[in-house]
Amino acid sequence: METKEKSMEENTIAVIGGGNMGSAIIGGIIAQGNNPADILLIEPLIPVREKLEHDFNISTSEKIQSSIKNCSVMIIAVKPGVVKEILKNLSPFLAKDHLLISIAAGISIAYIEKQFTKDVSVVRSMPNIAARVGKAAVALCRNNIVSKAQLETAHTIMKCIGTVIEVDEKQMDAVTGLSGSGPAFIFHMIEALAEGGVLMGIPREKALELAVLTAHGSASYLKELKMHPALAKEFVTTPGGTTIEGLLTLEEGGFKSLVMNAVKSASEKSRVIGLKLNE
């Protein structure tokens, strides 16, 4: 039986920027069964634009022009340094019933609002690299112009690349340090686990596969059983056994405080970058 393509609640979406995150959002929206005809990509780079047009069968444009006003949702998926120019180009075409979703790191809602002379519905979101495989942790906040229906639309779109959690905007720097930078910390841990396996005689390819499977399985265990990691750890830790010996070594090296401080450092860096960007 042929599957009929559906429209995302009759919303047409403009994605501004065809980089890693923009393309992940486009791919996620289409993978959920939505109609590619409902998506417009704005991307100045010809090779990127043509590739995504071919891969997803979507409409594309080199620059922002009047046709974008027909889109009910506009997603800003560009580097923070070019956001001001993007907003300036969008300004003539924005109306109050448009929803603007920004995933530009460090760009505050207040900064976006002050680029316009009219009220604009703004959602700020922070996905992470796992958006490429539809498993991102996606934080989201909004201004008070956003309607209930618009908020639901934002949730629906961002759920196409992962799991959405609403936060206060003042927590977004901490979110950047935790779930934004967090994948790199976890990759580093996986690499270390694999290197430990190599140290103990396991071939490198098999050691890496075991480390990845261990991380994936452990995260799935916590998520599916809704269990706190401290409790889950107890099920692995036999008195006098191998795991408690390894945990002792981690504690002697200050493992937990190192990870906590890594999140703190990344969060503080996000705050500093944000202050510079939002001047």
Descriptive account of the structure:
With 279 residues, the protein is an alpha/beta fold. It has 2 domains: 13-172, NAD(P)-binding Rossmann-like Domain (Rossmann fold); 182-275, ProC C-terminal domain-like (ProC C-terminal domain-like fold). It has helices at residues 20-31, 46-56, 83-90, 109-113, 148-158, 172-180, 182-199, 204-225, 229-236, 242-252, 255-277; strands at residues 13-16, 39-42, 59-61, 73-76, 99-102, 121-126, 136-142, 162-166. The protein has an 8-stranded mixed sheet. Helix 7 (182-199) packs across helix 8 (204-225).
Kindly state the number of beta strands. 8
Note the overall shape. elongated
CATH class of the largest domain: Alpha Beta
Please, what is the CATH homologous superfamily of the largest domain? NAD(P)-binding Rossmann-like Domain
Helix/strand/pairing class, anyone?
Answer: alpha/beta
Number of helices: 11
CATH topology heading of the largest domain: Rossmann fold
Query: Poorly predicted ranges (pLDDT <50, ≥5 residues)?
Result: 1-9
* Average pLDDT: 93
The CATH architecture term of the largest domain is: 3-Layer(aba) Sandwich
- Strand percentage: 5-15%
Largest sheet: 8 strands, mixed
Number of domains as seen in the coordinates: 2
Helix content: 40-55%
Radius of gyration: 22 Å
Provide the spatial order of strands within the biggest beta sheet: 3-2-1-4-5-6-7-8
**SSE order, one letter for each helix or strand:** EHEHEEHEHEEHEHHHHHH
Instruction: Please give the alpha-carbon distance between the first and last residues.
Output: 56 Å
